[in-house]
């Protein structure tokens, strides 16, 4: 189980690192470097918190942060898991607001 969490954390961390290279279509950064770095750090912390929670699969929940507002998307098996993802996210330092757009698909229930 620890190995699975480690691999998930590495994969999510790599994704966050590449996300820092994102720019708008006109080549200008979407935010200032400081704002973007802060949002990337928050995203990383949220993903790590989701990986650490044994009731959630971080691979099922996508995280995007903009000016401290975290948007969760993806699909989980139960409403309790969707709610827990939001609760875990709210507990992360730097999160100002959570938009929980996680869908529930009972077919994914474990």
TrEMBL record:
Q: Where in the cell is it found?
A: Periplasm
Could you tell me which residue ranges the BON domain spans? 38-106
**Keywords on this record?**
Periplasm, Repeat, Signal
User: Is Repeat tagged as a keyword?
Assistant: yes
Query: What cellular component terms from Gene Ontology apply here?
Result: periplasmic space
User: Which residues are the signal sequence here?
Assistant: 1-24
Q: Does the keyword Phosphoprotein apply?
A: no
Say which domain of life the source belongs to: Bacteria
Q: Know the name of this protein? A: Osmotically-inducible protein Y
Q: Which organism is it from?
A: Bordetella pseudohinzii
């Amino acid at each position: 189980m620890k190995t699975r969490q480690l691999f998930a954390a590495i994969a999510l961390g790599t994704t966050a690192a590449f996300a820092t290279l994102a720019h708008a279509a006109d080549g200008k950064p979407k935010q200032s470097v400081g704002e973007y770095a802060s949002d990337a750090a928050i995203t990383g912390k949220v993903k790590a918190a989701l990986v650490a929670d044994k009731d959630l699969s971080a691979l099922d929940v996508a995280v995007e942060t903009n000016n401290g507002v975290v948007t969760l998307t993806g699909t989980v098996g139960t409403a309790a898991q969707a709610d827990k993802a939001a609760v875990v996210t709210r507990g992360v330092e730097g999160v100002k607001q959570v938009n929980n757009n996680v869908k529930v698909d009972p077919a994914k229930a474990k």
